[in-house]
Amino acid sequence: MAKNGKSGLTYAAAGVELEAKDRFTESLTSIMRRTHGPRVIPNPGGFAGLFRLDYNSRLFARNYKDPVLVACADGVGTKLKLAAAINKFDTLGIDLVAMNVNDMIVQGAEPLFFLDYIAVPKVDAAMLTDIVKGVADGCRQAGCALLGGETAEMPDVYAPGEFDLAGFAVGVVELARAVNTERVEKGDVVLGLSSAGVHSNGYSLVRKIVEHAGLDLHRVYDDLAPAASAAKPRSRRAAIGRAGRRAAAPARPLGEVLLTPTRIYVDPIVKLLRAYRVKKVITGMAHITGSGIEGNLCRALHRKVDAVVRRGSWPVPPVFEFLQRHGNVDTEEMYRVFNMGIGYCVVVRPAFAESVKERLEKLGESVHVIGEIVKGRGDVRWG
Q1: Which of 162, 199, 291, 296 is surrounded by the most beta carbons within 10 Å?
Q2: Residue 222 to residue 251: CA distance in whole angstroms
């Protein structure tokens, strides 16, 4: 009781429930532990996570000769608003991990650990648990540890129903194995790995199209049904049709299609790089995010070469054709904003292009020869 006899102000009265936040934080321990390997050092109640760069055990020692740490940070943009519109949050964490680790492996790095930051107006344990479970799923796909994170309850900053996510990843690469754009040469081949859909870029335009065309996020649209064999299965247990083709997945509501999580390319790319430890046949890589192929593949080039990319050399997923038609979006704008079906590019020496393609396909990727490197000024041109 305050001195004047009136009840004093409390944090709860200001909109922050400390007990609810603490209960949620404590509930995450088991989720995080599922992502931990022998390099994570237990630190119960610690203010930060601990991670060994090398194992103590000789059996597992990596023995880095000249290790370089690689770090990145990213979010998932306004895809959050679409998730809130249909009250589905279980895939956002996968997107969050993907947007970070896919950038990291471009440098030739192996992801080590991941941290998340979630800002909300009020702790909603069910929603937040779905998000963190997604982060853990993404970390397991990427082979990295979910080492910690922060949940910030800020009712004065975020209105009810609003929230934000940010992710931070740290990895390692041997300096001699780090990707260097100067190695890209005329004649190199550009391979494109299929995306899972829109991924996590361009959602301000996606949401505007949905609003402009009056589309129903809960409706199943027949022209969004995925074609059989649109992507290669990661396991032989995937359903196979009588003709030996993978059976098409059942149609889903528009909102779920648009929330398809970003594909994580860590496992196949890391395995590919390990397969060519001596011969440096991979000369460049690019994660295709905002600004599309043209705005991202150029970052893998130096100033004396261009990449000529051929449209039509890969299948464009139905979701992009659907969005273009309903939004009356110009084709050039579609390719400028979206990945259009290519989520990751690998530039390889021409003599190894076919073998690299086959290796990636065996690792579960759908791979297309989409272009080649020519003399130029560091640009991407359409062929």
Answers
A1: 199
A2: 7
Give the type of residue at 209. I
Q: What is the DSSP string of 76-90?
A: -TTHHHHHHHHT--T
The domain locations on the chain are: 18-53+63-177, 181-234+253-382
Q: What is the mean pLDDT of each run of 10 residues along the chain (383 residues)?
A: 65 75 75 89 84 67 81 97 98 98 97 97 96 98 96 95 97 93 97 98 98 98 70 41 50 96 98 91 97 97 98 98 98 98 98 98 98 98 96
Helix (H, G, I), strand (E, B) or coil at 281: coil
Do the bridges between strand 110-120 and strand 145-153 make them parallel or antiparallel, or are there none, so unpaired? parallel
The reported pTM is 0.89
Q: Side chain identity at 124, as an amino acid letter?
A: D
What letter represents residue 156's amino acid?
A: D
Q: Residue holding tokens 């309903």?
A: 326
Q: What is the CA radius of gyration of the chain?
A: 23
Architecture of domain 181-234+253-382: Alpha-Beta Complex (3.90)
Extract the tokens encoding 28: 């995450």
pLDDT of residue 58: 56
What pLDDT, on the 0 to 100 scale, is given for residue 230?
A: 44
Instruction: From the options 3.30.1330.10, 3.90.1200.10, 3.40.50.720, 3.40.50.10490, give the CATH code of 18-53+63-177.
Output: 3.30.1330.10
Supply φ then ψ for residue 60, to 5 degrees: -110, 0
What pLDDT shows up at residue 243? Answer: 38
Rounded Cα distance, 186 and 284, in Å: 12
Judged on CB neighbours under 10 Å (0-12, 13-18, 19+), 336 is middle
Helices (H), the chain: 18-27, 29-33, 79-86, 92-105, 125-142, 203-213, 254-258, 266-275, 292-297, 318-327, 331-337, 353-362
CA 327/CA 324 separation, integer angstroms: 5
pLDDT reported for residue 247: 56
Token pair, residue 210, equals 């949905």
